């Protein structure tokens, strides 16, 4: 039984009650013979009985709705938010809990005597210089296979909340944040060449694409090692 139906039944119940307090009582013409005795209708047993009847009816309908309606925990589907982006022809997903923001790609300033191959340099993020790393190098991807596929797509940079502070990861394209059902993520696995893929939880089908779901803890660990 829906909430609208319950509301209609309660309205019907109220309509069937003799609301004498509105006709001859304190809210009417005050001709009720027992009004002088009770002073106010709320002190009268007729008024109290009517109120009790309505409350009982409401309580009954609420219990009926709760009993027959799907429970809240049954209606909800557990999901996890992933930022989905592209490097060349490969689509990847990263849990948003480690993501600070997505911003247009800024100029990257190289540093002398860089100790890490993955460290591209620094980028200006709201006036602060933030380390910029190559996700291609971190993941061990083939640079020849990760060149931008379209000049019409604007590159972006992911700003991650790494343990030592924010870091920038340039990417070719950002699709956006999407909620993926937990039961789908729980079934992903690695096989064949995928089993050797770095920092990867698994590969799943997303829309018409093959999506590589990155392990954010392993990735953040690799980022920390690249900066020390």
Automatic annotation (TrEMBL):
Keywords carried by this UniProt record: Cytoplasm
Gene3D superfamilies: CheA-289, Domain 4, SH3 Domains
Localization: Cytoplasm
Predominant subcellular localization, coarse grouping: cytoplasm
Domain CheW-like: 79-225
Pfam family, any one: CheW
Signal peptide as annotated in the record: none
PANTHER family linked: CHEMOTAXIS PROTEIN CHEW, CHEMOTAXIS SENSOR HISTIDINE KINASE-RELATED
Protein name, entry field: Chemotaxis protein CheW
